[in-house]
Amino acid sequence: MHKTLLALTFCLLSSVVAAEQMYRWIDDQGVPQFGQQPPEGKTYQRIDVNSPPPPGGTLRAPAPLPQSATAKAPEEEDQSISDEALAAKRKEQCAKIRGNLQTMERNPRLSKTTDAGETVRIGEDERQEMMAQARADLAEFCSE
Q1: Over the range 15-53, which residues count as b (16 or more CB within 10 Å of their CB) and which as e?
Q2: Backbone Cα Rg of the chain
Q3: What is the DSSP letter of 120?
Q4: Phi, psi (degrees; rounded to nearest 5) at 108
Q5: What pLDDT, on a 0 to 100 scale, did the predictor assign at position 77?
Q6: Model confidence pLDDT, tens digit, residues 96-120
Q7: What is the DSSP string of 3-16?
Q8: Among 10, 61, 71, 93, which is most exposed with the fewest C-beta within 10 angstroms?
Q9: What is the DSSP string of 69-84?
Q10: What is the CA 118 to chain-centroid distance, rounded?
Q11: Is the pTM higher than 0.90?
């Protein structure tokens, strides 16, 4: 019994290791094909298959994007933005803040979505704090 269980465990583990490499190629009819063995006599592309995260575990962070030689540093981008573009962006943000403030003033029953995707009702104290913050932002950034 123990030998059978050990043999089954070994087979399952070896099949997981073998399934982590895949190949892609185009057949004679122009249809993409996939397989664990590369085709003979055809050009193919090697595809790395990542194993899924453990159950209940955290997701892996995505790979960082490669830096291109033509990409500007953030300081250079800020300096290259024209005054007109900054004024237009500020005007757009002020309009959004005004709209949010009107919504908060007119609707006492507000809700928000948490990071976990749950919808939670906003209490009156939090609503008043949000309205005060919006008014302060308008006074500081949007005085025209």
Answers
A1: eeeeeeebbeeeeeeeeeeeeeeeeeeeebeeeeeeeee
A2: 28
A3: E
A4: -75, -15
A5: 54
A6: 999 999 998 998 888 888 888 888 8
A7: HHHHHHHHHHHHHH
A8: 61
A9: TTPPPHHHHHHHS-HH
A10: 18
A11: no
